[in-house]
């Protein structure tokens, strides 16, 4: 029915050999030296970090696949633009350029700059979420949920059931289930719904996209009930690629046309420019003067004056160019095509991964990878620790460690236990991905050696950032011994 993961490609280049190679449409102009410390050092490093990959130091890491946030490669044009920055507290020409670019791409009148995505979430939640209100969404993101809850709201996930199926051929696992949305409107009444949030390129379920058609239907239903639609566009670049390549009715639309149609269907767009636009910053966009005026006060209170919003002026220049580059098919295809390659290679070797391939990274299914571990021992956290140990590759736990305890202090286990291996845009080469695939396959062969983790230091809020864990047994030494037996003195 649907094309297999990774087979769809915007690339016009076919290989004579028939091999499916994601060909780069850019060249490397600036490089950064990498080191790969020996496994004994990696063991010490992961122990010092409390088995939390957030606490590792860069000097101990070979491939940093923690995140795509703020670490995408910039283009020569972005770097060049940064030299032209018009730095002033108010009235900066640089800001006017960004505002014009936003109006051009999104076709909306008002733009508010913020220092990063969660700052936009703080402001949107403070303005629209009241105690007792409900925010239906396809799926939560850590910081989006935290801000809604902090303001007294409740998150209701109304993702299609298929969205939580780890292996699937559904091309749009990030879609909202319209029946679930209608049922929530019936139960709570439209007035109790603060807004409906649609997250594009749905992060925590594996960077899975929604279709344009789904957004049209969500928008129609919300408008019929006078409910605002808020669109988290942080991962828009990937979702644009998937709409273009997987949604037959959109294959002849340009990325600009798809983006314009999206903006016409929503009331507020916000984004992290650490992802969208390959810079560092964020923004809120709307056509509603009323919404703009309400949010504007909070920007000056929390972020900075309206012509920089906590961003450096140089980053604003880079963002303006980066947003324009997001309208380039070569640019948006690179990430999803590299991820598609990794997912295909791992699937071929029998390693459990999320399918179809999504955006932002390749996601290992720790629940099946380590099916001997109960969720109480944090399989995704254990897999993150084990993979770093055997490869120097740093991934991010996206499972129960990333959840927080409920009001009574009980664990809330996540629907999925994932190890996310982010593939920042235009950063890695194909041989580096092959290395990661190789070590992951070795670890899969030796998965029985991997044991669980338990918290030894557990912060109350966003515990995954600073929490420390210890292995439940001395499984890490056994893994090091097996690595040495198989690889000799190789790194
Ligand atoms: C990263 C991200 C955010 C938060 O952005 P920051 O810049 O990290 O604060 C919000 N929503 C989604 C979907 C994201 O991926």
TrEMBL record:
It comes from the Bacteria. Coiled coil: none annotated. GO terms for molecular function: carbon-carbon lyase activity. SUPFAM superfamilies: PLP-dependent transferases. Residues 64-434 form the Aromatic amino acid beta-eliminating lyase/threonine aldolase domain. The modification N6-(pyridoxal phosphate)lysine is found at residue 275. Homotetramer. This is Aromatic amino acid beta-eliminating lyase/threonine aldolase domain-containing protein. The lineage of its organism: Bacteria, Pseudomonadati, Pseudomonadota, Alphaproteobacteria, Rhodospirillales.
């Amino acid at each position: 029915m649907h094309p297999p993961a990774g087979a769809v490609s915007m690339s016009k280049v076919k290989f004579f050999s028939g091999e499916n190679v994601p060909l780069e449409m850019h060249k490397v102009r600036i490089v950064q030296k990498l080191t790969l410390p020996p496994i004994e050092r990696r063991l010490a490093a992961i122990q010092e970090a409390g088995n939390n990959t957030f606490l590792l130091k860069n000097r101990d890491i070979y491939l940093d696949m923690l995140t795509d946030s703020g670490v995408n490669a910039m283009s020569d044009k972005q770097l060049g633009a940064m030299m032209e920055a018009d730095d002033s507290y108010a009235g900066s020409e640089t800001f006017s350029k960004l505002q014009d670019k936003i109006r051009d791409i999104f076709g909306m009148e008002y733009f508010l700059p913020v220092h990063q995505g969660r700052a936009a979430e703080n402001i949107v939640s403070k303005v629209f979420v009241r105690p007792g209100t409900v925010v239906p969404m396809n799926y939560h993101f850590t910081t989006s949920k935290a801000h809604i809850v902090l303001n007294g709201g409740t998150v209701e996930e109304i993702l299609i059931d298929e969205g939580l199926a780890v292996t699937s051929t559904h091309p749009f696992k990030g879609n909202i289930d319209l029946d679930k949305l209608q049922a929530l409107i019936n139960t709570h009444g439209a007035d109790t719904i603060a807004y409906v949030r649609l997250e594009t390129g749905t992060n925590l379920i594996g960077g899975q996209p929604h279709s344009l058609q789904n957004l049209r239907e969500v928008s129609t239903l919300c408008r019929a009930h006078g409910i605002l639609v808020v669109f988290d566009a942080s991962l828009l670049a990937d979702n644009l690629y998937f709409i273009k390549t997987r949604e037959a009715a959109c294959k002849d639309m340009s990325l600009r046309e798809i983006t314009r149609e999206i903006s016409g269907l929503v009331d507020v767009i916000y984004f992290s420019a650490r992802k969208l636009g390959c810079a560092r910053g964020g923004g809120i966009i709307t056509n509603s003067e009323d919404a703009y005026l309400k949010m504007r006060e909070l920007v000056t209170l929390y972020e900075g004056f309206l012509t920089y919003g906590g961003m450096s002026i140089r980053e604003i220049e880079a963002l303006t160019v980066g947003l324009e580059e997001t309208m380039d098919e070569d640019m948006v295809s690179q990430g999803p095509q590299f991820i598609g390659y990794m997912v295909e290679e791992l699937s071929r070797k029998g390693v459990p991964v999320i399918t179809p391939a999504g955006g932002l990274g390749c996601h290992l299914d720790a629940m099946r990878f380590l099916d001997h571990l109960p969720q109480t021992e944090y399989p995704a956290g254990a897999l993150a620790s084990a993979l770093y140990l055997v490869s120097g590759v740093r991934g991010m736990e996206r499972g129960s460690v990333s959840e927080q305890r409920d009001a009574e202090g009980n664990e809330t286990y996540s629907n999925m236990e994932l190890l996310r291996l982010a593939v920042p845009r235009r950063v890695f080469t194909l041989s580096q991905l092959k290395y990661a695939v190789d070590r992951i396959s070795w670890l899969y062969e030796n998965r029985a050696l991997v044991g669980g983790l338990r918290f030894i230091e557990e912060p109350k809020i966003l515990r995954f950032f600073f929490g420390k864990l210890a292995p439940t047994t001395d499984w890490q030494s056994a893994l090091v011994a097996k690595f040495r037996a198989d690889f000799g003195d190789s790194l």
